[in-house]
């Protein structure tokens, strides 16, 4: 492309500080350095994790460009890039895969050493590619997709089938893959089992889809917002309950409902109290509980160790356990083969300039996933 090697001026949604609205700004995006890729974003989803930066639940430096669930096209590549080339359709990866660190090399690992979950805010060389009003702007989780153009390390880019619709496939960059993988890859849900999903947002619905795909015979959705029940039932839940409907602890309610046979529980909210509730709700001896929702930073969890002593398994789950560069292209292929339906998760599609409206839809509970198009 004619822009290769040049600074690109474009629009981006910049967060200048905590608890502020997004400001659509003119920014400069520098060319990619060695082992980096510059990508033109086509569509990006609004995820609760982005809101964690606004609210301060995730550590970040400001100003910053957030966004991490997207599809784009490679505009140009830096020296030494071998896995993608200009014109390739790609998904940015908030969870990189360098294929060299011990997590990448272990068949059970996926938390690459190059991940930026602590708000470092720069690329691998320690610098940023964004400038706005003469000031450097921070990156977010190696991706920063709330921008017409972004620069990523090669380890944070997965080439996908060019036939994939950007406004659907972008969900594979975070929400869908995280939930679906939590069931089929992290928990390894077994056929005929009983599963309980705490939190029925976009990721929670994706967990339900994963439990159904794995052959679970009973899938119970739990949420205080009953407006979410219909969608949960539509994607595969067999029943839904609200913790507010009984004075009993939710673990007792679920035990009574199932005859104490809950094998898998998933916490997809990110609340410390609900994490303990989910752990308490799976079978005391052979149950497995998976923490899927991002926990608030700088918070400590207190629980009764007897919950684990009796035999339960408590697991964490980053990006559904997938190895990002290896597995994301495969998930896109499965999407094209209609092995799952992402239309059920997308409630709103808006132009990028309406990003603040998209977040209002998130806050009001009206949206499951809002996708912004460029």
List keywords for this structure.
374 residues; 7-stranded mixed sheet; 17 strands; globular; All-trans-retinol dehydrogenase [NAD(+)] ADH7; cytoplasm; EC 1.1.1.1
Task: Walk me through this protein's architecture.
By secondary structure, the chain is α/β, with parallel strands linked by helices. It has helices spanning 48-55, 102-105, 166-169, 175-187, 202-213, 229-235, 250-258, 272-281, 306-309, 324-336, 355-363, and strands at 8-14, 23-29, 36-45, 70-77, 89-92, 130-132, 135-137, 149-153, 157-159, 194-198, 218-222, 239-241, 264-267, 288-291, 313-316, 346-351, 369-373. 51% of the residues are buried. The protein is globular. It has eleven helices and 17 strands. 25% of the residues lie in helices and 23% in strands. Among the domains are: 176-320, NAD(P)-binding Rossmann-like Domain (Rossmann fold, 3-Layer(aba) Sandwich), CATH 3.40.50.720; 341-374, no CATH class.
Task: State the gist of this model.
The chain has 374 residues and is α/β, with parallel strands linked by helices. It has helices at 48-55, 102-105, 166-169, 175-187, 202-213, 229-235, 250-258, 272-281, 306-309, 324-336, 355-363, and strands at 8-14, 23-29, 36-45, 70-77, 89-92, 130-132, 135-137, 149-153, 157-159, 194-198, 218-222, 239-241, 264-267, 288-291, 313-316, 346-351, 369-373. Helix content is 25%, strand content 23%.
């Amino acid at each position: 492309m004619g822009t290769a090697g040049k600074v690109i001026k474009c629009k981006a949604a910049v967060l200048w500080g905590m608890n502020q609205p997004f400001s659509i700004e003119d920014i400069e995006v520098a060319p990619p350095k060695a082992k980096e890729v510059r990508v033109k974003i086509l569509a990006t989803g609004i995820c609760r994790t982005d809101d964690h930066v606004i609210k301060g639940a995730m550590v970040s430096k400001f100003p910053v460009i957030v966004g991490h669930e997207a599809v784009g096209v490679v505009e140009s590549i830096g020296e030494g890039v071998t896995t993608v080339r200009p014109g390739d359709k790609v998904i940015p990866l908030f969870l990189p895969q360098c294929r060299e660190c011990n997590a990448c090399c272990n068949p059970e690992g996926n938390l690459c050493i190059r991940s930026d979950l602590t708000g470092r805010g720069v690329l691998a060389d320690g610098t940023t590619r964004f400038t706005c009003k003469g000031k450097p702007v921070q990156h977010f989780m190696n991706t920063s997709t709330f921008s017409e153009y972004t620069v990523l390390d090669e380890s944070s880019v997965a080439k996908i089938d060019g036939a994939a619709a950007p406004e659907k496939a972008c969900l594979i960059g975070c929400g869908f893959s995280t939930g679906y993988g939590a069931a089929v890859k992290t928990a390894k849900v077994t056929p005929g089992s009983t599963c309980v999903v705490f939190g029925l947002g976009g990721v929670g619905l994706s967990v339900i889809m994963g439990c159904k795909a794995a052959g679970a015979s009973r899938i119970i959705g739990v949420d205080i917002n009953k407006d979410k029940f219909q969608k949960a039932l539509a994607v595969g839940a067999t029943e839904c309950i609200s913790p507010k409907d009984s004075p009993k602890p939710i673990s007792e309610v679920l035990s009574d409902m199932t005859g104490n046979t809950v094998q898998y529980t998933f916490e997809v909210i990110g609340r410390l109290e609900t994490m303990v509730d989910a752990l308490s709700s799976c079978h005391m001896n052979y149950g497995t509980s998976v923490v899927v929702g991002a926990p608030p930073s700088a918070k400590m969890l207190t629980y009764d160790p007897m919950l684990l002593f009796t035999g339960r398994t408590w697991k964490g789950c980053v990006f559904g356990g997938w190895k990002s560069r290896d597995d994301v292209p495969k998930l896109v292929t499965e999407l094209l083969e209609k092995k799952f339906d992402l239309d059920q998760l997308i409630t709103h599609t808006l132009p990028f300039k309406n990003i603040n409206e998209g977040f209002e839809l998130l806050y009001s509970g009206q949206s499951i996933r809002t996708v912004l198009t460029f």
